[in-house]
Amino acid sequence: RVKAETVQREKDMLAQFVSTQEDERRRIARDIHDHVGQQLTVLRLKLDALKEMCDDQTICNEIEKVNEITERLDREVDFLAWELRPAALDDLGLRVSLENFVNEWSHHTGVAAEFHANGLSKTRLPFEIETNLYRIGQEALNNVYKHAKAKNVSVLLEKRKDTVLLIVEDDGIGFNPKDKRNRAKGIGLIGMSERAKICGGTLEIESSKGNGTTIFARVQPLKKK
Predict the structure, then answer these.
(1) CA-to-CA distance for 17 and 6, rounded, in angstroms?
(2) What is the CA radius of gyration of the chain?
(3) Alpha helices for 85-212 (secondary structure H)
(4) Strands 152-160 and 202-207: what pairing?
C-alpha cells in the first residue's frame, strides 16, 4: 500500500508540474504573440513607409534587405509562439492541432511528413491527455529533426475501442533505445515516457541503427473503470 501511495504521489506531483509548465507556455506564447509579434509588425510597416519615401536606389535596396530579414524574424516568432502553445489545442482538440503541427513542422524543417487519423473526428479527449499526447508527438518530431537524419516521417493518431494510439515513424539512421548514453543527449525519451505515465499510458520505442525509429504511445482514456 505504501509503495502504491508513493507512486501515486509521484504521479500527482509530475502531473502538477506538467500542468504548471503548460500554463507558463500559454502565458509566454501569448506574450510573444501580443508584444514581440506586434512590434515586428510595426517595424515592417515603418520599413515599407521608408521604402516609399526613398529616392536613393542603394538605400532602397538596403531597406528591402532589412525588410526581408524582419519578415523572416516575424515568421520565426509566430512559429515559436505557436509551437509553445497552439490555440487550436484548446479550441479544436488533439487531432486538428497535431495535424497542423505535422504540416507546419514539415514546412519548417523540409522533412516530408504525413499525418493520418482514425476514429477521433468527433471525439474530444480529457484536457490532460490531449496536451500530453500532443507534446509527445511534438517531441518525437523534434527529435527526428535533431537526430534522425530522416527523409520521411509518418504520424498516426487512432482510436481503437477504448485505447488511443499515437505512432511516429521515421526512416532515419535509428539508434539503440537501451543505450543509456542516448538518454544523456537530450533526446527526450524520459520526458515522453513521463508524459505517457501521467495519462496512465505507456510509451514504447522500436529502433535499431540504420532502420529508423518508431514510437508508440498508448493511453486508455475511454476505458470504463
Answers:
(1) 16
(2) 21
(3) 87-91, 94-109, 127-143, 180-183, 189-198
(4) unpaired
Q: 162: buried, middle or exposed (CB in 10 Å: 19+, 13-18, 0-12)?
A: exposed
pTM, rounded to two decimals: 0.71
DSSP state of 221: T
**What is the C-alpha separation between 181 and 185, in angstroms, rounded?**
7
Q: At 179, phi and psi to the nearest 5?
A: -75, 115
Q: What does the pLDDT look like over 63-108, one tens digit per residue?
A: 889 988 988 888 788 777 777 777 778 788 899 989 999 998 998 8
CA torsion 89-206-202-193 (nearest 10°) is -70
Residues 6+ apart with CB under 8 A from 110: none
Q: What residue has cell string 515559436?
A: 80
